[in-house]
Each structure stands twice: as structure tokens, then as C-alpha cells.
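@channel sequence for tomorrow's demo:
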Amino acid sequence: MAEPIAALLLVAGAGIALIAAIGVARLPDAFLRMHAATKAGLAGAGLVLIGTGIAFASSGAWLRVGLILLFLLVTLPIASHALGRAAYIGGAPMWRGTRDDLRGVLPRGDIDTSPAEVASAAQALPPRLLVVLAEEQEAEAALASALRVLGPRASEVTLLAPIPPASRELSGVRAGGKAEAAARSGAQRLLAARADLKARAAGLERCCEELGLPCAIRIEEGRAEELIAAMAAGHELLVLPRASRQGPGAAGSGRDGSAAIEGAGLPALLLEPPAWPAPSGLWFLHADDALSDAALERLLGLRLFAGLPVTVAVVEGPGAVFARRRALMMAEAAGRQAAAGPLLPAARPIPELPPQSLPAIPAAPRTETAAWRSLRHGRGPLLLL
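C-alpha cells (generated this afternoon):
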């Protein structure tokens, strides 16, 4: 009885593989051909493998069949997704009946487009925001206001809700042999933390829905700095509360917080609760060094703040006047409206800024002057570059 079943499965698998081969040869575009090669090819190979296992009828044969099927199930979807994405970005021609749901989401060039042109097309897409939900519930109003200000210029929001490492301690040896109770208590704390963050993230998700802005919620366990660094790719700006106890935006985090944000490779907008009014301009503090020039270049490249005038203030020093002139030339070359700000004493805090101006400073300057520290560890919104 096993031999006819094995033969039937082998013939059926071979037939499906034949249909897949015809599809690869005859279907009109790369995306449809890839669909035939992966879906029908996997079904055909699976039936052939199962038929082979029945024919040999041994534990060794079934072990090999199982491992091969598992390998195919794991690798084929990933490989087909990667190939399809590469074909789309590379500009592979589409059949006229294929609906393009990725228009405006992924860059798309011609089949002969150079990598530089593809990168330029990616730069033309609207930027994405990475928003970090903090432990302090009062900070959510500031995050919501940032979404309302920046959302119309963004294409997507990733809402990261980190669970601190202390909340995910699921096991441990306790006195009296209570390890199981400790693990159960840790699991309960983890579930409670997830439920709380999910409920609080719902308000920001509704804000995104009102703006018509796609929002992906990620509730992850681990240190906020590590999660931010892992998820930074593809985003233009990091938004997080300034007074968060758990994240790199913490007012007392000092250079550690600056290094964590700098390590993420993203400019960071630190917000002070309860709300953030829409800025009327940017106020950049230049420290007369190469790091400040690089930070200003990043600031001028932020599309989320395009159109806002930039005021450049410089910390007093031997080359302060020249540094300010160089910064104004950089802004002019970038097509931005810029004005010369004051020369500030390095040993004194920043005086009161113009109303509704957003201060911007390098995340980790070569020298931490009193002017820099007054902004980094003060109050109010701040853009770290």
C-alpha cells in the first residue's frame, strides 16, 4: 500500500514542479515568475520529499526529509522577499496588470539605474520617525504634540515601547528554594508591563490615525539605548522625552546619554512635558570645531525641519567669527535661510533664547562648555545632532 501512495506523491510533486517551471518560462514579469518558483516549487519539492520518505520508510529517511522541508520553509520566504525587494528597487519591469502597492514606499529606479541614483530616490521619500515611549506618563502629551508638528512631513512612525531589563527577570535562585515562585512573579511583571505599554501606546497610535500616518508599535524588552541603536536604520529622527529615567534622553545621563544617541546614528529631538509647540526657527550652537560643522550639516539635511530659518550662534574663541561665517555659507549652499547669532562666552550659560526657537547642539562636542551644558542639561526642547 505504501508504494502506490509514494508513487502518487512523486508524480504529483513532479507535476507541480513542471507547472512551476512553465510559469518561470512563460509568466510576463520577474515578480510573477518568482511567485511560481517559490510557491509551486516548494509544494512540488515537498510532495516529492514526502513520497521519498514513504518509499524508504526508515527513520533516517524521514529525519532527512524533515530537515530538508524545514530548511526550505525557513529559507524560501526570506530569499523570495529579498529578491523581490531587490528587483523592485532595481527597476525590474512590471506586467501591465500588476498593481504597484509600494509606490511612494520604496524607491524605484530603472533597470540600469546606478546605486547613487537609487540612493537619491530613497532620499526623496518622506522621512520616518522613531518615537520612544518613556516610563513617565506625562511625557506622552509631548510626544503627541511632536507627532502633530512633524507628522505631516513624515511617511511613517515607529513607536518603540521599551521594557526595562528589571521588568523581564523571569528566574532566579532565592533563599528557601523559591526559584519557581520568582520566575512566576517575573513573568507576571512582564505581562503587566506589556499590557500597560500597549494601553499607553494606543493614544499615540490614535494620533497617527488622525494624521493618516502609518504607525508600527514595537514593545521590546531590553535597554532603551540598545533597542534604539538596533531600530535606527531607515529613520531620520529620534523623538523621546527629555526627562525619561530609562532612556538616553535623560537630563542626568550626561555624556553616556549623548554617546547612546550618537551611537544610534540619528539626530534626537528631546522633549519636555507637557507639550511641544511648533517651532518658528532653529537656533544652532557652534563650538568652533569640526564636530560642530558636521552637526550643522546633519541639521541642514533634516527634511522634517526644512523651511525653518537657522540662527547660528558661536562660542567665543580665536576662530569664532570665521566659524560663524563658514556656517552661514554652509546654510546658504544648502538653500536654507540663515542669520548670524551672537558670540557667546564659553564659561557662561546660554541666555534666554528667542520664543518658539528650537535649540540644536552637537551630541558629544570636543569640549563641553558651560554654554553647551546649559542646553544639554537644562529644560525645554532640544535637538541633539
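heads up for whoever presents: The domain at 279-385 is CATH 3.40.50.620 (Rossmann fold).
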